[in-house]
């Protein structure tokens, strides 16, 4: 639920002009479920994704919202909707592993970069890391720059001098901290940026009164990179469950993008 609330506020922050140009929209499905859509990035299943779906009525609303466009549907962990999804022409694809840990401090992660929490005056640095790290359209930076300083959001960046190298966000929902939007610019990868940013987010979550920190990344499979998965395990997170992702049969069920506005990064 913390992840869904982060996604809800994230999509509410998109500037109106960009929303119109890129076809950005969200649909509250009720009972905590949410569907989001970015028509200009239809290949990105995370930006075109219905999360927390638990009822047939919610499924009935998902179809008209996406139409014929590529998208993913993730049932709530306790939902039993496999038969209904298959009946509606969906099939399971690449899943995501959900992780959780307490707020016990991590050992300092070795890196030559300087990690700090940033606010609105350095929002452009946060956005630049995400846009370049995930190779998204540059104008997405106008959207991402809305997050630092926003209620519930705590954004971090790693620097080499004045040059931003990597980013990551913490969203706090009641006593749960959700870690997402972690990206590293290509020139700064494999220097420990994401491990250090993850440690900083766990520490900040504890300061804010959280008792649990959660995150997610793609499941371990033989033909996909697992750097983010290993970083998460090293930080003391424990696997909780696989989140199923269902896709319309006309689309490629194995093409779930690792590019997430609310998740883990490429190799750091």
Annotation keywords:
268 residues, alpha+beta, Aminopeptidase, 7-stranded mixed beta sheet, globular
Can you tell me about this structure?
- This protein is of the alpha+beta class.
- The protein has 2 domains: 99 residues, no CATH class; 139 residues, 3-Layer(aba) Sandwich (Aminopeptidase), CATH 3.40.630.
- Strand 1 and strand 2 form a beta hairpin.
- The chain is globular and about 55 Å long.
- The chain starts with a helix and ends in a 20-residue tail after the last strand.
- The C terminus is likely disordered.
* CATH class type of the largest domain: Alpha Beta
Number of distinct helices: 8
Q: Enumerate the strands of the largest sheet in spatial order, edge to edge or round the barrel.
A: 7-8-9-10-11-6-12
Order of helices and strands: HHEEEHEHEEEHHEEEHEHEE
Instruction: Give the proportion of residues in helices.
Output: 25-40%
Any idea of the CATH topology of the largest domain?
Aminopeptidase
Spatial shape: globular
CATH superfamily of the largest domain: Gcn5-related N-acetyltransferase (GNAT)
Computed Rg = 18 Å
Break the fold down into its secondary structure elements and pairings.
Layout: H1 2-12, H2 16-22, E1 24-30, E2 33-38, E3 49-53, H3 56-66, E4 72-75, H4 82-87, E5 90-92, E6 96-101, E7 114-118, H5 123-134, H6 140-144, E8 153-160, E9 163-173, E10 176-184, H7 193-207, E11 212-218, H8 227-234, E12 238-243, E13 246-248
Parallel strand pairs: 3-4, 10-11
Antiparallel strand pairs: 1-2, 2-3, 5-13, 6-11, 6-12, 7-8, 8-9, 9-10
